[in-house]
Amino acid sequence: LRHELQTQNIQDNLNMEKCLFNLMRHLSFMMRADRMGLFMFRQRNGVAELATRLFNVHKDAEFDECLVPPESEIVYPLDIGIVGHVASSKKMVNIPDVSQSPHFSGFVDELTEYQTKNVLAVPIMNGKDMVAVMMATNKLDGQSFTAKDEETFNKYLNFANLLLRVFHLSYLHNCETRRGQVREGC
Question: What sequence ranges are listed for the domain GAF (predicted)?
């Protein structure tokens, strides 16, 4: 029974991740964003951080290419980068030129050989608790993200919020389960 529940839990997570992935693909098309990413909030050893869960999502992306396995995730402390700033401030940011932002950190660009020019990022909350940060990068027409893009992002955020609340609870449960298994020697 335990194995069946774990299998069902994994399938439920993948379904939620696929829903979020499809939402992000749609958003990247509507906002003309080159890429989108989803960064899950968690605490490890009492330290808050964000970890990539869906990365390099674009309108033609395939789910399996964008789902980040735990061993490949990029982890951001909350005091680094734009996503860390969004998680700390719990406010949307629209940065037309990242080179002018004191919060921009180029370490992910160096890691991925991608050049971030502009960013639109939103916190996803469960009440007052941080759940995730969703980020769009590089407006395709060479301009920066607009007030209309912010409006579009906010419009779809309610759906993402609902999905992520459920997913985040499951995600935290899985982290605790893995931690318990390590302690038990499994």
Answer: 15-174
